[in-house]
């Protein structure tokens, strides 16, 4: 067997095993050394390839696709700094628990550390940000080596999903010639020779024993003021169960916008979504002291909630993790429950004690929540504000679609102004590392999963990832971008740095002064600028009737935006405290 045949069969068996394990999508950034992987992926009948030229954009595209589809997505790039450009997305995937399979092509061993072009150190190049690393042997076509290729493919796929999902790197050293031979018979391997790795991999559900449940119910049952909190979470099937728990135990449930609790058809009568507005006041935080807190998912976006938890550090707090991890930045003495969250809710529902949280406790939360909603949803400014942009999207976004949210002010405005809805809208954000890079590409990747996407993003984040627009244009993906342009970093206007007038604009405000409509023209987008919330809604509805890429620019003023937000919050807190008199 010559080298080309060995290369072809070895690579094909690896990729076919990925398909057998459930891989459906690969994102390819073209290059020479990755030729065997790229061509074989394109030839495989069960895997859809997405070609994204810029590796940095490609990695975030794959992340968005994997986040939305909730299944592993493969990445392919050539050797050298191409693989280094994946790094930011790999970090985000690790912290946000998104399954990515990073397949990096490499120079063979004899061309390393000898000054060969595009030969950098790729062994474990992502360090601890991948769950598993493996360098493949150089291609051979013998039966033992084809079985080895399949075994490593199955293992790599499994590692992306086992426990907390996340990224995996497999490094391929390829010698030339690099072009596979597709005239060879049966390159995918005879059916009888294919492994059964997927069938042999079984993983059970983690759940608490009877004694542990009794211990928890005894503790919770002796308390009158419990609180459920749901942070960022991708399991949409969890929402119905935790809301049922809230009803049975008579508890309020604080729902982060990324928890998937605010949208959908489940009962939301106990859902509190306006807590960020009224927990900004220290007296209200003190008045709402709980007896215990049970948190599902990651830490909520709200900084006001962070203050609330820190100030009640003596209160028993339980964080539920499905597999492993310690996600609690408060420094409190937190207890961890490692169990499937849906199963835990079912067990607590079944063992609900006779004495539950008082109705007065729940009613107080519901009353404050309604006051917050009344103020946050009222009024319309003559010049659209950033909060109104989030509110406008919430009002008209179609059922069965996705809202992707940028970090910084965008996700905080969604937290404040996107209230509960019966529409089945997934709300996604890159909250693993909370970066503003790669957001356009992630949203476009989410659109590649087959559902229309609305992206809410600020101008700096838009500038960071304009390359991501190319994939939207190339594949005519259905995405509407609401670009909030306050000419800089709006969130810094809410921070102490805003008081430093000498250095603020250069170091924090960072205006870019770019005519973004030209970027829209470059990528063939339908482009509109709106000045009122009503006009935004009209343009949104129009964009939802169109295919492809639409960009709606909302121009705001950073200083005015900060004042408007504070006035809203102050009215909420003032009315709540007036009711105490």
UniProtKB/TrEMBL annotation:
Its cofactor is Mg(2+); Mn(2+); thiamine diphosphate. GO terms for biological process: menaquinone biosynthetic process. It holds the Pfam family TPP_enzyme_M_2. Pathway: Quinol/quinone metabolism; menaquinone biosynthesis; Quinol/quinone metabolism; 1,4-dihydroxy-2-naphthoate biosynthesis; 1,4-dihydroxy-2-naphthoate from chorismate: step 2/7. One of its GO terms (molecular function) is manganese ion binding. Keywords: Magnesium, Manganese, Menaquinone biosynthesis, Metal-binding, Thiamine pyrophosphate, Transferase. Residues 13-124 form the Thiamine pyrophosphate enzyme N-terminal TPP-binding domain. InterPro entries: DHS-like_NAD/FAD-binding_dom, MenaQ_synth_MenD, MenD_middle, THDP-binding, Thiamin_PyroP_enz_TPP-bd_dom, TPP_enzyme_TPP-bd. Residues 222-405 form the Menaquinone biosynthesis protein MenD middle domain. Catalyzes the thiamine diphosphate-dependent decarboxylation of 2-oxoglutarate and the subsequent addition of the resulting succinic semialdehyde-thiamine pyrophosphate anion to isochorismate to yield 2-succinyl-5-enolpyruvyl-6-hydroxy-3-cyclohexene-1-carboxylate (SEPHCHC). HAMAP family: MenD. Belongs to the TPP enzyme family. MenD subfamily. This is 2-succinyl-5-enolpyruvyl-6-hydroxy-3-cyclohexene-1-carboxylate synthase.
């Amino acid at each position: 067997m010559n080298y080309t045949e060995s290369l072809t069969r070895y690579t094909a068996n690896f990729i076919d095993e990925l398909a057998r394990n459930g891989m459906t999508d690969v994102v390819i950034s073209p290059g020479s050394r990755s030729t065997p992987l790229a061509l074989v992926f394109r030839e495989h009948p069960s895997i859809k390839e997405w070609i994204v030229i810029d590796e940095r954009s490609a990695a975030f595209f794959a992340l968005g696709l994997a986040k939305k589809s909730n299944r592993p997505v493969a990445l392919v790039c050539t050797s050298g700094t191409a693989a280094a450009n994946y790094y930011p997305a790999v970090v985000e995937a690790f912290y946000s628990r998104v399954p990515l399979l990073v397949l990096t092509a490499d120079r063979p061993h004899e061309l390393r550390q000898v000054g060969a072009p595009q030969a950098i150190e790729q062994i474990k190049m992502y360090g601890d940000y991948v769950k598993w690393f493996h360098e493949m042997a150089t291609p051979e076509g013998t039966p033992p080596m084809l079985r080895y290729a399949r075994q490593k493919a199955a293992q790599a796929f499994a590692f992306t999903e086992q426990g907390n999902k996340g990224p995996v790197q497999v490094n391929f050293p390829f010698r030339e010639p690099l072009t596979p031979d597709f005239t060879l018979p049966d390159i995918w391997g005879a059916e009888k020779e294919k492994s059964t790795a997927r069938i042999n991999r079984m993983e059970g559900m983690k759940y608490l024993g009877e004694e542990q449940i009794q211990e928890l119910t005894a503790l919770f049952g002796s308390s009158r003021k419990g609180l459920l909190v749901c942070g960022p979470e991708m399991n949409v099937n969890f929402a119905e169960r935790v809301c049922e728990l809230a009803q049975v135990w008579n508890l309020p449930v604080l729902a982060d916008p990324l928890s998937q609790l605010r949208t959908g058809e489940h009962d939301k009568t106990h859902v509190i979504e306006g807590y960020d507005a009224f927990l900004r006041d220290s007296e209200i935080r003190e008045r709402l002291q709980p007896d215990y807190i049970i948190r599902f998912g990651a830490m909520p976006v709200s900084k006001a909630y962070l203050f609330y938890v820190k100030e009640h550090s003596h209160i028993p707090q339980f964080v539920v993790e499905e597999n492993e991890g310690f996600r609690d930045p408060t420094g409190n003495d937190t207890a961890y429950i490692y169990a499937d969250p849906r199963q835990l809710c079912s067990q607590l529902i079944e063992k609900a004690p006779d004495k539950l949280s008082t109705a007065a406790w729940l009613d107080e939360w519901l009353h404050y929540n309604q006051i917050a909603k009344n103020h946050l949803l009222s009024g319309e400014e003559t010049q659209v504000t950033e909060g109104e942009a989030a509110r406008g999207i919430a009002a008209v976004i179609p059922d069965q679609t996705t809202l992707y949210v940028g970090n910084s002010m965008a996700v905080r405005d969604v937290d404040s102004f996107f209230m509960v809805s019966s529409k089945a809208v997934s709300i996604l954000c890159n909250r693993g590392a909370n970066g503003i890079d790669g957001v356009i590409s992630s949203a476009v990747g989410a659109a590649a999963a087959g559902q229309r996407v609305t992206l809410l993003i600020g101008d700096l984040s838009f500038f960071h990832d304009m390359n991501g627009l190319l994939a939207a244009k190339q594949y005519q993906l259905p995405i509407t971008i609401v670009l909030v342009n306050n000419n800089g970093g709006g969130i810094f206007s809410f921070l102490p740095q805003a008081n430093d007038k000498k250095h603020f604009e250069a170091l924090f405000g960072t205006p870019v002064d770019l005519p973004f409509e030209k970027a829209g023209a470059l990528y063939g987008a339908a482009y509109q600028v709106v000045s009122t919330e009503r006009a935004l809604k009209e343009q949104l509805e129009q964009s939802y009737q169109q295919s492809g890429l639409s960009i709606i620019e909302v121009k705001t003023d950073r200083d005015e935006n900060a004042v408007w937000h504070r006035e809203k919050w102050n009215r909420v807190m003032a009315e709540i405290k007036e009711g105490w008199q």
